[in-house]
Amino acid sequence: MSTDTGHSGIVHWRRSVWNGARCEPVLVILRPDDLQVRDRSLRTVLRADPRAVTGRLTRFGTLVLTVEGRRYALVGRGASLSPAPSADQHRALEDTGSGSPSPTAAGGAVDQLLNGGAAARMRDWYARLAAAGARLS
């Protein structure tokens, strides 16, 4: 078992490939034995042991997770039509006290300039989930 206390952050859940308004912010909380994803109202979207999660990181920086046969596509930032993270999500993120980005999550200049560091953010989540036991390819 890891001595890591966990990590949390706000990313976006791409519920639709085509409709940017359906790309909503979610609070992701990763603890050694627990992965939680919560919507803007802090309702639980996903809760699982990280070891029960499978997934992959696409070339475009989408972290595609599968839990109990259900697919969740997470991206580092939303579309222009996407709602902003809620005040409740920001408060909950502050309450977890573990939302600081990894030093390796800075990303390259092109990612920073064109994508706000979104791809690096998702690579960081990929590494953290893999370290927690998720089966990622």
Give structural notes:
It is a single chain. The protein has 137 residues and is an alpha+beta fold. 23% of the residues lie in helices and 32% in strands. It has three helices and eight strands; from the N terminus they run βββββββαααβ. It has helices spanning 87-96, 109-115, 118-131; strands spanning 7-14, 23-31, 34-38, 44-48, 54-57, 63-67, 70-75, 135-136. The chain has an eight-stranded mixed sheet with strand order 4-3-2-1-7-6-5-8, with helices on both faces. The model has no long low-confidence stretch (mean pLDDT 86).
Strand/helix succession = EEEEEEEHHHE
- What spatial order of strands do you see in the largest sheet? 4-3-2-1-7-6-5-8
Number of helices: 3
Which of globular, elongated, flat, extended, rod-shaped describes the shape? globular
Q: How much of the residues is beta strand, in percent?
A: 25-35%
Tell me the helix content: 10-25%
What is the rounded distance between the termini? 22 Å
Low-confidence stretches: none
Secondary-structure topology with pairs:
Blueprint: E1 7-14, E2 23-31, E3 34-38, E4 44-48, E5 54-57, E6 63-67, E7 70-75, H1 87-96, H2 109-115, H3 118-131, E8 135-136
Parallel strand pairs: 5-8
Antiparallel strand pairs: 1-2, 1-7, 2-3, 3-4, 5-6, 6-7
Write a short abstract of this structure:
The chain has helices at residues 87-96, 109-115, 118-131; strands at 7-14, 23-31, 34-38, 44-48, 54-57, 63-67, 70-75, 135-136. With 137 residues, the chain is α+β, with helices and mostly antiparallel strands.
